[in-house]
Amino acid sequence: MYSEKIELLIDGKWRQGSEGKTESLLDPATEEVLAQVPHATAADLDEALNAAAKGFKVWKKKTAIERYNILAKAADLIDARKDEISKLLTLENGKPLTEATGEVAFSAEALRFYAEEGKRAYGRIIPSRTPGVRQIVTKEPIGPVAAFTAWNFPASNVIRKIGGALAAGCSIIIKPAEETPGTAVAFGRCLQEAGLPDGVLNIVFGNPADVSAHLIASEIPKAVTLTGSTAVGKLLQKQAADTLKRCHMELGGHAPVIVHEDADLEKTLDMLVAFKFRNAGQVCTSPTRFYFHESIYEKAVAGFAERAKKVKFGHGLEDGVQMGPMIAERRLDVMEALVSDAVAKGATLMTGGERVANKGYFFAPTVLRDVPDEARIMSEEPFGPIAPCTSFSDFDTLMERANALPYGLASFVFTKDLTLARRTEEELEAGMVGVNFMGISTPETPFGGVNESGDGSESGTEGLEAYMRVKYVAEL
């Protein structure tokens, strides 16, 4: 059923690692082996680095319209193979097929957007103080890029980096997550078939720490981009400092959800449950700390738990499944520890809180009430299907609690009062705020956080600028 052969892409050639080392790719819903993932050796990585350097010289000389034509054709190929790629994504990641299909469709749209935006990397002419002098500002690609992505969105995480880098005129070496390699390989084949020159895109796998250290230590990449945890982001940024590479980090979050007393509670709860248990809660912008006004608190937590009990979980290819498994068994241990800690500190378990099914890494949709701020789950990103709920009364105290963590990726606010909405969104420390709406990720809007949730944005014009540098020319 798993139709993709997992290979490295180095200098336009699909191949295995030179020493033959591999690791097993598992279906997280069944624990069955789907394929073998090749590991690149240090020599393989050096080949990829040299290929990226060579590919950059070719790609940066292409006109914006030439790059557009190749990227747009690749997007068309992704669309044409959407059903096949979506099944790959579900098998390796576990999310329901409907979610996987939406993610692959998003990826094609994102690649098209970047292709179009590459034609609008405008410079400017600045009036000179000196007669006869022209002052020109241009934007040019920064150079080869080293990119690292997480397993939770095998399609969109990958395409945001590939699309931004290629549209800007950069070459790229990308290491997708070994847990979810097939989607990236499928995208690589589409780009190659669309006419991408050899060496412009290189795909490698291996031990994450070894691969990242080797690539970042090289003088060839001029930028490092990561979608991953805050801890890993800090490590890679330290490594990049030795060669002063530009760093673009999309890191962890712990999104507060503030539901004011005048919110449309039933509509809000429907939305919160859908987004909380999407991808089993393994989403960096997932709502993870729920603050309900005390006047609606009892009704809110009861309604939340009632809806959570009805979430259908199972293999993502099964009809009607709303939530799949977690990515690996190690995540189940984390979920159990967070629930136990919260209950020990005074929280009440409303539903879930345990592993389910004999095979696969399933954890029941979980709702906790009266969770104190001292519980680990209120300060540690759960990255799982657990919804910790608490109440609030005073606005200023609420803002202190919502902004108490070092993270600042996403936040959500629900109220009918536009003045209150604006006051809340202005106070929140976050790169993205959803007001009565949770769809904060589109190809044309910036996606990124502040503080320890990262630096820079993907998607939108900002996503292209991350891979470009400014050159000023004074010409007499």
Characterization of the model:
It is built from 14 helices and 22 strands. With 476 residues, the chain is an alpha/beta fold. The chain folds into two domains: 8-251 and 451-475, Aldehyde Dehydrogenase, Chain A, domain 1 (3-Layer(aba) Sandwich), CATH 3.40.605; 255-435, Aldehyde Dehydrogenase, Chain A, domain 2. The strands form six sheets. It has a seven-stranded mixed beta sheet, with helices on both faces. Strands 9-8-7-10-11-21 form a six-stranded mixed beta sheet, with helices on both faces. A three-stranded antiparallel beta sheet has the order 5-6-22, with no helix packed on it. α13 links the parallel β19 and β20 (432-435).
Topology of this protein?
Elements: E1 8-10, E2 13-15, E3 22-26, E4 33-38, H1 42-59, H2 64-80, H3 82-93, H4 97-117, E5 124-126, E6 134-141, E7 145-148, H5 156-168, E8 172-175, H6 182-193, E9 201-203, H7 208-217, E10 223-227, H8 230-241, E11 246-250, E12 255-259, H9 265-276, E13 287-293, H10 297-309, H11 329-344, E14 348-351, E15 355-356, E16 362-363, E17 366-369, E18 386-392, H12 395-402, E19 410-414, H13 418-427, E20 432-435, E21 454-455, H14 460-465, E22 468-475
Parallel strand pairs: 7-8, 7-10, 8-9, 10-11, 12-13, 12-19, 13-18, 17-18, 19-20
Antiparallel strand pairs: 1-2, 3-4, 5-6, 6-22, 11-21, 14-17, 15-16
Helix pairs in contact: 2-4, 2-5, 2-6, 3-4, 4-5, 9-10
